[in-house]
Write a structure and sequence with these properties.
- The protein has 9 helices and 4 strands; from the N terminus they run βαβααααααββαα.
- It has a 4-stranded mixed β-sheet with strand order 2-1-3-4, sandwiched between helices.
- The protein has a single domain, classed as Glutaredoxin.
- A hairpin with a 2-residue loop joins strand 3 and strand 4.
- Helix content is 47%, strand content 10%.
- Helix 4 crosses helix 7.
- By secondary structure, it is an alpha+beta fold.
């Protein structure tokens, strides 16, 4: 069985699209997916980048493209009332559901609830009553499964999220979604077919993966 680490932040529509399309991508394979929430903004800061929604022209294109991608792939997608927003409450809700055996992971069910909260309703993802309702849903889910529930604002939950983000940075991740298999990083929902080819044993990865990334820089812009 192969292990896949799926690093995500529910603020990202591309992470949502990748999440929804992942079962189809992995159909017929024996894999275990580990869903790992991270703070996308921390990855951007570490690499000196702006997010797509922070660049006006790119923001407009991003919303148009993800709306079309949802339509094209048959994935329901309704842009939230405001975007970007502060995803920390959602990320911490996810980490509050993590188990002691896998403290950095959310189950597929919990991950789905976080994404649907943002990308299925068209409402404000930061609305306090909506967040309270989501917390109640997740807490009830954990209770029914006889799993411990941690307060989202607890130091343990915050540390779990920091540890996930540190892990992502140590792997060189610069965005979400990022899927890591055998130490190889596949970034973006459009990389799903590439990852499937790797999992299927495509010989290209043995011949070209390292070679195409070894080009010397011809010029570097001053910062």
């Amino acid at each position: 069985m192969r292990d896949i680490r799926f690093f995500y932040d529910p603020i990202s529509p591309y992470a949502y699209l990748a999440f929804e399309r992942l079962p189809e991508t992995l159909m017929g394979l024996s894999v275990l997916v580990h869903y790992k929430p991270v703070l996308f903004a921390a990855l951007l800061k570490a690499h000196g980048q702006l997010g797509p929604a922070e660049i006006p022209a790119k923001r407009d294109w991003t919303y148009r493209q993800v709306a079309w991608l949802g339509h094209h792939h048959g994935v329901p997608l309704a842009l939230p009332a405001t975007h970007p927003f502060n995803p920390l409450p959602l990320l911490r809700l996810g980490m509050a559901c993590a188990s002691d055996e896998a403290p950095g992971e959310t189950s597929r069910y919990v991950t789905e609830q976080l994404f649907h909260h943002v990308w299925r309703s068209g409402l404000d993802a930061s609305d306090p009553p909506r967040l309270a309702a989501l917390q109640a849903l997740l807490q009830d889910h954990m209770t029914r499964r006889e799993r411990p529930w941690l307060a989202p604002e607890s130091d343990t939950v915050k540390q779990r999220l920091r540890a996930n983000t540190d892990e992502a940075l140590a792997l060189g991740l610069f965005g979400v979604p990022a899927l890591v298999v055998d130490g190889r990083v596949f970034w973006g929902q459009d990389a799903l077919p590439m990852m499937r080819a790797y999992l299927d044993g495509d010989a290209w990865f043995g011949e070209h993966w390292d070679a195409v990334a070894s080009r010397p820089e011809g010029v570097r812009r001053p910062t």
